[in-house]
Amino acid sequence: VTGVQTCALPIYTVTFYSFKGGVGRTTALIHVAWILAQRGRKVVAVDLDLEAPGLSTAFSLQPEPPIFGLVDYFYERAYMPEHKIQIGEIFGEVNVPNATGRLFIVPSGELNLNYIAKIDDLRATSLTTEGETLWSVFVKDIKRHLNPDFILVDSRTGLNQWGAFSLLQAADESVIFLFPNDQIGRAHV
After folding, report:
1. Which of 39, 104, 95 is nearest to 69 (CA)?
2. Model-level pTM?
3. Strands across the sheet with 12-18, in order?
4. Fewer CB within 10 A of the end CB, N or C, for the chain?
5. What are the 10-residue block averages of pLDDT along the chain, 189 residues in total?
6. Dihedral angle, C-alpha 181, 185, 188, 189, nearest 10 °
7. What is the pLDDT, as a whole number, of residue 6?
8. Which residues pair with 174 in a beta bridge?
9. How far, in Å, CA of 92 to CA of 105, rounded?
10. 3-state SS string over the chain?
11. Residue-wise over 31-64: b if at least 16 C-beta within 10 A, else e?
12. Spatial distance between the Cα atoms of 123 and 35, rounded to a whole number of angstroms
């Protein structure tokens, strides 16, 4: 039909967050990602638990595993005007048997001294040289490259800049995991 513009649907982002570790946050994200891929959706799972990453170790990725990750990608966009790491270099695909959809994992990066130095320098509030947020640039790039239906974010636990970033800036919706203990009664959220 002429004169009718088509518009792409927005990517829906869900953050999986917990105040404490060990409550099943990452496991739940893995199951949801797997089910969505089996149901024909294109899913990108992002490891934003930068100080204790582990999402990518739950899967066998192709390529196996990417040399670069989200930290490298964010760091270059925040501090280096010439970007050498491209979006296609920071994710791997998971083979989900009998799935009509696809599942991609964006690891945080390779754990080494360089990674630790980047984490120490990088701030969730950092902007690119063009004044954009790191997350908005990432979403634009991932949409151009993969055009997923969902981005599922494995958040950092606790009260910190990356946990807040994943809840307040990255998420359209959040799944919050709690364990019934005394800490919940003391936290007034």
Report:
1. 104
2. 0.88
3. 61-62, 92-94, 102-106, 42-47, 150-154, 12-18, 173-177
4. N
5. 48 91 90 96 95 83 81 93 89 93 95 94 88 92 96 90 84 86 57
6. 40
7. 41
8. 15
9. 5
10. CCCCCCCCCCCEEEEEEECCCCCCHHHHHHHHHHHHHHCCCEEEEEECCCCCCCHHHHCCEECCCCCCCHHHHHHHHHHCCCCCCCHHHCCEEECCCCCCCEEEEECCCCCCHHHHHHHHHCCCCCECCCCCEHHHHHHHHHHHHCCCCEEEEECCCCCCHHHHHHHHHHCCEEEEECCCCHHHHHCCC
11. ebbbebbeeebbbbbbbbbbeebebbebbebeee
12. 33
- φ and ψ at 43, to 5 degrees? -125, 135
* Tokens of residue 9, six digits: 């649907």
Q: Please state whether beta strands 42-47 and 150-154 pair in parallel, antiparallel, or not at all (unpaired).
A: parallel
Q: What residues form DSSP beta bridges with 106?
A: 46
For residue 4, the model assigns a pLDDT of 38
The count of residues in the chain is 189
List the end-to-end C-alpha distance of the chain, in Å, as a whole number: 50
Structure tokens at 103: 């599942």
